[in-house]
Amino acid sequence: MTAPRIDTDTLRRLPKAVLHDHLDGGLRPATVVELAREVGHTLPATDPDALAAWYFDAANSGDLVRYIATFEHTLAVMQTREGLLRTAEEYVLDLAADGVVYAEVRYAPELMVDKGLTLDEVVETVQEGLAAGMAKAAAAGTPVRVGTLLCGMRMFDRTREIADLVVAYRDAGVVGFDIAGAEDGFPPADHLAAFELLRCESVPFTIHAGEAHGLPSIHQALQVCGAQRIGHGVRITDDIPDLAAGKLGRLASWVRDRRIALEMCPTSNLQTGAAVSIAEHPITALKDLGFRVTLNTDNRLVSGTTMTREMSLLVEEAGWTAEDLRTVTVNAVKSAFIPFDERTALIEDVVLPGYADVL
Length: 359
Known about the structure:
With 359 residues, the chain is an alpha/beta fold. Helix content is 47%, strand content 13%. Keywords: Hydrolase, Metal-binding, Nucleotide metabolism, Zinc.
Protein backbone atom coordinates (compact mmCIF):
# COMPACT_ATOMS: atom_id res chain seq x y z
CA MET A 1 0.00 0.00 0.00
CA THR A 2 1.36 3.41 -0.99
CA ALA A 3 1.74 5.91 1.86
CA PRO A 4 -0.50 8.98 1.52
CA ARG A 5 1.15 12.10 0.14
CA ILE A 6 2.04 14.73 2.72
CA ASP A 7 0.92 18.20 1.66
CA THR A 8 3.11 21.28 1.97
CA ASP A 9 1.13 22.87 4.79
CA THR A 10 1.48 19.72 6.87
CA LEU A 11 5.20 19.57 6.13
CA ARG A 12 5.62 23.19 7.21
CA ARG A 13 3.99 22.46 10.57
CA LEU A 14 6.15 19.44 11.34
CA PRO A 15 8.94 20.07 13.86
CA LYS A 16 12.33 20.24 12.20
CA ALA A 17 15.95 20.29 13.28
CA VAL A 18 18.75 21.65 11.11
CA LEU A 19 22.44 21.18 11.91
CA HIS A 20 24.05 22.57 8.74
CA ASP A 21 22.95 26.07 7.77
CA HIS A 22 25.19 29.08 7.10
CA LEU A 23 24.16 32.46 8.44
CA ASP A 24 25.65 34.34 5.49
CA GLY A 25 23.85 32.01 3.08
CA GLY A 26 20.38 32.58 4.50
CA LEU A 27 19.64 36.29 4.32
CA ARG A 28 16.34 37.66 3.05
CA PRO A 29 16.78 39.12 -0.46
CA ALA A 30 14.98 42.33 0.56
CA THR A 31 17.35 42.73 3.51
CA VAL A 32 20.39 42.33 1.26
CA VAL A 33 19.03 45.03 -1.04
CA GLU A 34 18.31 47.46 1.80
CA LEU A 35 21.58 46.93 3.63
CA ALA A 36 23.61 47.10 0.40
CA ARG A 37 22.06 50.47 -0.35
CA GLU A 38 22.99 51.71 3.12
CA VAL A 39 26.64 50.63 2.87
CA GLY A 40 27.08 51.56 -0.79
CA HIS A 41 27.62 48.05 -2.10
CA THR A 42 26.69 47.30 -5.72
CA LEU A 43 24.53 44.23 -6.25
CA PRO A 44 23.91 42.25 -9.44
CA ALA A 45 20.18 43.09 -9.03
CA THR A 46 18.35 45.57 -6.82
CA ASP A 47 14.89 44.05 -6.94
CA PRO A 48 14.54 41.40 -4.20
CA ASP A 49 12.90 38.83 -6.47
CA ALA A 50 15.47 39.41 -9.19
CA LEU A 51 18.28 39.12 -6.65
CA ALA A 52 16.90 35.84 -5.32
CA ALA A 53 16.74 34.51 -8.88
CA TRP A 54 20.32 35.67 -9.53
CA TYR A 55 21.55 33.80 -6.47
CA PHE A 56 19.79 30.61 -7.44
CA ASP A 57 21.01 30.77 -11.05
CA ALA A 58 24.59 31.60 -10.02
CA ALA A 59 24.66 28.74 -7.55
CA ASN A 60 23.54 26.18 -10.14
CA SER A 61 26.99 25.96 -11.70
CA GLY A 62 27.87 22.46 -10.54
CA ASP A 63 31.06 23.86 -9.03
CA LEU A 64 31.70 24.40 -5.31
CA VAL A 65 34.15 27.26 -5.84
CA ARG A 66 31.66 29.25 -7.95
CA TYR A 67 28.92 28.41 -5.45
CA ILE A 68 31.02 29.90 -2.64
CA ALA A 69 31.72 33.03 -4.71
CA THR A 70 28.05 34.06 -4.45
CA PHE A 71 28.62 34.96 -0.80
CA GLU A 72 30.45 38.16 -1.77
CA HIS A 73 27.21 40.13 -1.65
CA THR A 74 25.79 38.77 1.61
CA LEU A 75 29.10 39.22 3.41
CA ALA A 76 29.29 42.80 2.14
CA VAL A 77 26.21 43.70 4.20
CA MET A 78 27.34 41.83 7.33
CA GLN A 79 30.29 44.01 8.29
CA THR A 80 28.50 46.36 10.71
CA ARG A 81 26.78 45.91 14.04
CA GLU A 82 23.47 46.93 12.48
CA GLY A 83 23.81 44.47 9.64
CA LEU A 84 24.73 41.58 11.91
CA LEU A 85 21.96 42.28 14.41
CA ARG A 86 19.30 42.41 11.72
CA THR A 87 20.42 39.38 9.74
CA ALA A 88 20.82 37.23 12.87
CA GLU A 89 17.39 38.14 14.21
CA GLU A 90 15.70 37.57 10.86
CA TYR A 91 17.53 34.27 10.50
CA VAL A 92 15.82 32.95 13.63
CA LEU A 93 12.39 34.28 12.70
CA ASP A 94 12.59 32.65 9.27
CA LEU A 95 13.47 29.31 10.84
CA ALA A 96 10.57 29.58 13.28
CA ALA A 97 8.16 30.32 10.42
CA ASP A 98 9.40 27.14 8.72
CA GLY A 99 8.67 24.91 11.71
CA VAL A 100 12.26 24.57 12.88
CA VAL A 101 12.49 23.88 16.62
CA TYR A 102 16.26 23.41 16.86
CA ALA A 103 19.04 24.82 14.70
CA GLU A 104 22.77 25.22 14.68
CA VAL A 105 23.81 28.22 12.64
CA ARG A 106 27.39 28.52 11.41
CA TYR A 107 29.42 31.43 10.14
CA ALA A 108 33.03 32.58 9.88
CA PRO A 109 33.74 35.61 12.12
CA GLU A 110 36.97 36.33 10.25
CA LEU A 111 34.91 37.21 7.15
CA MET A 112 32.97 39.92 8.99
CA VAL A 113 35.72 42.24 10.22
CA ASP A 114 36.32 44.34 7.09
CA LYS A 115 34.68 47.46 8.57
CA GLY A 116 36.54 47.42 11.87
CA LEU A 117 34.61 45.02 14.09
CA THR A 118 36.77 42.72 16.19
CA LEU A 119 36.21 38.98 16.23
CA ASP A 120 34.73 39.25 19.72
CA GLU A 121 32.40 42.03 18.63
CA VAL A 122 31.20 39.93 15.71
CA VAL A 123 30.39 36.96 17.94
CA GLU A 124 28.71 39.06 20.63
CA THR A 125 26.63 40.96 18.08
CA VAL A 126 25.46 37.82 16.30
CA GLN A 127 24.52 36.26 19.64
CA GLU A 128 22.57 39.38 20.53
CA GLY A 129 20.66 39.21 17.27
CA LEU A 130 19.95 35.51 17.64
CA ALA A 131 18.69 36.06 21.18
CA ALA A 132 16.35 38.81 19.98
CA GLY A 133 15.00 36.49 17.30
CA MET A 134 14.47 33.64 19.74
CA ALA A 135 12.62 35.94 22.14
CA LYS A 136 10.30 37.17 19.37
CA ALA A 137 9.70 33.64 18.09
CA ALA A 138 8.82 32.40 21.58
CA ALA A 139 6.46 35.34 22.12
CA ALA A 140 4.72 34.45 18.84
CA GLY A 141 4.20 30.86 19.99
CA THR A 142 6.82 29.34 17.67
CA PRO A 143 9.85 28.79 19.92
CA VAL A 144 13.13 27.74 18.36
CA ARG A 145 16.47 27.13 20.00
CA VAL A 146 19.53 28.19 18.03
CA GLY A 147 23.13 27.28 18.86
CA THR A 148 26.15 28.72 17.06
CA LEU A 149 29.05 27.04 15.29
CA LEU A 150 32.03 29.26 14.54
CA CYS A 151 33.87 28.44 11.32
CA GLY A 152 37.52 28.80 10.50
CA MET A 153 38.22 29.21 6.79
CA ARG A 154 40.26 26.24 5.67
CA MET A 155 42.20 28.18 3.01
CA PHE A 156 43.43 30.77 5.53
CA ASP A 157 45.51 30.54 8.70
CA ARG A 158 43.16 31.73 11.47
CA THR A 159 41.52 28.44 12.44
CA ARG A 160 43.40 28.15 15.75
CA GLU A 161 42.37 31.70 16.58
CA ILE A 162 38.73 30.87 15.82
CA ALA A 163 39.01 27.73 17.96
CA ASP A 164 40.14 29.94 20.84
CA LEU A 165 37.06 32.07 20.21
CA VAL A 166 34.80 29.00 20.43
CA VAL A 167 36.29 28.09 23.81
CA ALA A 168 35.86 31.66 25.05
CA TYR A 169 32.16 31.78 24.10
CA ARG A 170 31.18 28.17 24.80
CA ASP A 171 28.93 29.29 27.67
CA ALA A 172 27.42 32.17 25.73
CA GLY A 173 25.58 30.37 22.94
CA VAL A 174 28.47 28.97 20.89
CA VAL A 175 28.13 25.17 20.83
CA GLY A 176 30.88 24.05 18.44
CA PHE A 177 33.35 24.58 15.61
CA ASP A 178 33.70 23.86 11.91
CA ILE A 179 36.06 24.53 9.05
CA ALA A 180 34.48 25.81 5.85
CA GLY A 181 35.49 27.00 2.40
CA ALA A 182 36.87 25.26 -0.68
CA GLU A 183 37.45 21.63 0.29
CA ASP A 184 39.62 20.34 -2.56
CA GLY A 185 43.26 21.23 -1.95
CA PHE A 186 42.72 22.31 1.66
CA PRO A 187 42.73 19.12 3.75
CA PRO A 188 41.39 19.09 7.32
CA ALA A 189 44.74 17.93 8.71
CA ASP A 190 46.22 21.32 7.85
CA HIS A 191 44.32 22.63 10.90
CA LEU A 192 45.30 20.08 13.51
CA ALA A 193 46.29 22.74 16.04
CA ALA A 194 42.70 23.96 16.17
CA PHE A 195 41.26 20.47 16.53
CA GLU A 196 43.75 19.46 19.20
CA LEU A 197 42.81 22.51 21.26
CA LEU A 198 39.12 21.73 20.96
CA ARG A 199 39.59 18.10 21.95
CA CYS A 200 41.62 19.17 24.99
CA GLU A 201 38.85 21.60 25.95
CA SER A 202 36.07 19.02 25.33
CA VAL A 203 34.43 21.16 22.65
CA PRO A 204 32.60 19.30 19.84
CA PHE A 205 33.25 20.04 16.20
CA THR A 206 32.12 19.08 12.73
CA ILE A 207 34.13 19.28 9.52
CA HIS A 208 33.02 19.92 5.94
CA ALA A 209 34.21 16.78 4.15
CA GLY A 210 33.20 14.42 1.36
CA GLU A 211 31.50 17.06 -0.78
CA ALA A 212 34.01 18.35 -3.35
CA HIS A 213 36.64 15.80 -2.30
CA GLY A 214 36.25 12.11 -1.61
CA LEU A 215 37.10 9.49 0.98
CA PRO A 216 40.53 10.89 1.95
CA SER A 217 38.81 14.06 3.15
CA ILE A 218 36.32 12.11 5.25
CA HIS A 219 39.03 9.84 6.61
CA GLN A 220 41.19 12.79 7.67
CA ALA A 221 38.24 14.57 9.26
CA LEU A 222 37.39 11.55 11.38
CA GLN A 223 40.54 9.57 12.02
CA VAL A 224 43.15 12.32 12.02
CA CYS A 225 41.21 15.34 13.26
CA GLY A 226 38.56 13.63 15.41
CA ALA A 227 35.34 15.20 14.07
CA GLN A 228 32.10 14.17 15.77
CA ARG A 229 29.99 14.94 12.68
CA ILE A 230 30.64 15.32 8.95
CA GLY A 231 29.37 18.28 6.94
CA HIS A 232 27.78 16.83 3.78
CA GLY A 233 29.66 13.51 3.58
CA VAL A 234 28.00 12.61 0.27
CA ARG A 235 31.12 10.87 -0.99
CA ILE A 236 31.00 8.23 1.74
CA THR A 237 29.21 6.23 -0.97
CA ASP A 238 32.62 5.82 -2.64
CA ASP A 239 33.22 3.25 0.11
CA ILE A 240 29.97 1.43 -0.68
CA PRO A 241 30.53 0.00 -4.18
CA ASP A 242 27.05 -1.50 -4.34
CA LEU A 243 24.51 0.62 -2.50
CA ALA A 244 21.70 -1.81 -3.28
CA ALA A 245 23.58 -4.73 -1.73
CA GLY A 246 24.69 -2.59 1.22
CA LYS A 247 28.20 -3.98 1.45
CA LEU A 248 30.23 -1.39 3.34
CA GLY A 249 33.93 -0.63 3.25
CA ARG A 250 35.88 -0.05 6.44
CA LEU A 251 35.40 3.72 6.56
CA ALA A 252 31.70 3.56 5.74
CA SER A 253 31.29 0.92 8.44
CA TRP A 254 33.07 3.15 10.93
CA VAL A 255 30.72 6.04 10.13
CA ARG A 256 27.59 3.94 10.42
CA ASP A 257 28.59 1.81 13.39
CA ARG A 258 29.69 4.75 15.53
CA ARG A 259 26.59 6.80 14.66
CA ILE A 260 28.55 9.67 13.15
CA ALA A 261 25.99 12.10 11.81
CA LEU A 262 26.13 13.08 8.15
CA GLU A 263 24.86 16.64 7.65
CA MET A 264 23.34 16.14 4.20
CA CYS A 265 22.04 19.00 2.07
CA PRO A 266 20.28 17.65 -1.05
CA THR A 267 19.56 20.85 -3.02
CA SER A 268 22.98 22.31 -2.29
CA ASN A 269 24.64 19.05 -3.34
CA LEU A 270 22.86 19.19 -6.68
CA GLN A 271 24.07 22.75 -7.21
CA THR A 272 27.71 21.94 -6.48
CA GLY A 273 27.72 18.74 -8.51
CA ALA A 274 28.02 16.43 -5.50
CA ALA A 275 24.77 14.67 -6.46
CA VAL A 276 22.86 14.23 -9.73
CA SER A 277 19.23 14.40 -8.60
CA ILE A 278 17.00 14.35 -5.55
CA ALA A 279 15.69 10.91 -6.50
CA GLU A 280 19.23 9.51 -6.66
CA HIS A 281 20.72 11.54 -3.82
CA PRO A 282 22.64 9.22 -1.46
CA ILE A 283 20.67 10.43 1.55
CA THR A 284 17.89 7.92 0.81
CA ALA A 285 20.12 4.88 0.35
CA LEU A 286 22.22 5.81 3.38
CA LYS A 287 19.09 6.27 5.49
CA ASP A 288 17.87 2.85 4.44
CA LEU A 289 21.26 1.33 5.30
CA GLY A 290 21.03 2.69 8.84
CA PHE A 291 23.44 5.62 8.65
CA ARG A 292 22.66 8.55 10.91
CA VAL A 293 21.73 10.94 8.12
CA THR A 294 20.32 14.37 8.86
CA LEU A 295 18.49 16.73 6.50
CA ASN A 296 19.72 20.30 6.11
CA THR A 297 19.44 23.42 3.96
CA ASP A 298 23.09 24.59 3.85
CA ASN A 299 22.29 28.05 2.43
CA ARG A 300 18.65 29.03 2.17
CA LEU A 301 19.10 32.13 0.01
CA VAL A 302 21.80 30.73 -2.24
CA SER A 303 19.96 27.44 -2.75
CA GLY A 304 16.49 28.99 -2.83
CA THR A 305 15.30 26.52 -0.23
CA THR A 306 13.85 25.89 3.21
CA MET A 307 13.56 22.81 5.39
CA THR A 308 9.96 22.46 4.23
CA ARG A 309 11.13 22.49 0.60
CA GLU A 310 13.87 19.94 1.26
CA MET A 311 11.32 17.65 2.89
CA SER A 312 8.85 18.17 0.07
CA LEU A 313 11.43 17.30 -2.58
CA LEU A 314 12.30 14.05 -0.83
CA VAL A 315 8.61 13.17 -0.44
CA GLU A 316 7.79 13.95 -4.06
CA GLU A 317 10.93 12.70 -5.80
CA ALA A 318 12.41 10.05 -3.50
CA GLY A 319 9.25 8.57 -1.98
CA TRP A 320 9.94 9.59 1.61
CA THR A 321 7.24 9.07 4.24
CA ALA A 322 6.44 10.96 7.42
CA GLU A 323 8.28 8.23 9.30
CA ASP A 324 11.41 8.92 7.23
CA LEU A 325 11.16 12.63 8.02
CA ARG A 326 10.74 11.90 11.72
CA THR A 327 13.79 9.63 11.60
CA VAL A 328 16.11 12.29 10.19
CA THR A 329 14.70 14.90 12.57
CA VAL A 330 15.36 12.67 15.58
CA ASN A 331 18.80 11.89 14.14
CA ALA A 332 19.61 15.59 14.02
CA VAL A 333 18.53 16.25 17.60
CA LYS A 334 20.45 13.19 18.82
CA SER A 335 23.59 14.59 17.17
CA ALA A 336 23.15 18.22 18.26
CA PHE A 337 26.02 19.80 20.18
CA ILE A 338 23.94 20.40 23.31
CA PRO A 339 23.72 18.33 26.52
CA PHE A 340 22.16 14.86 26.43
CA ASP A 341 19.27 15.68 28.75
CA GLU A 342 18.31 18.69 26.63
CA ARG A 343 18.39 16.60 23.46
CA THR A 344 16.24 13.93 25.08
CA ALA A 345 13.69 16.48 26.26
CA LEU A 346 13.50 18.06 22.82
CA ILE A 347 12.84 14.70 21.18
CA GLU A 348 10.29 13.50 23.73
CA ASP A 349 8.46 16.77 24.36
CA VAL A 350 8.55 18.43 20.92
CA VAL A 351 9.61 16.24 18.01
CA LEU A 352 7.74 13.00 18.68
CA PRO A 353 4.45 14.70 19.66
CA GLY A 354 4.73 16.89 16.57
CA TYR A 355 4.76 13.86 14.31
CA ALA A 356 2.06 11.93 16.15
CA ASP A 357 -0.79 13.19 13.97
CA VAL A 358 0.83 12.21 10.66
CA LEU A 359 2.04 8.73 11.56
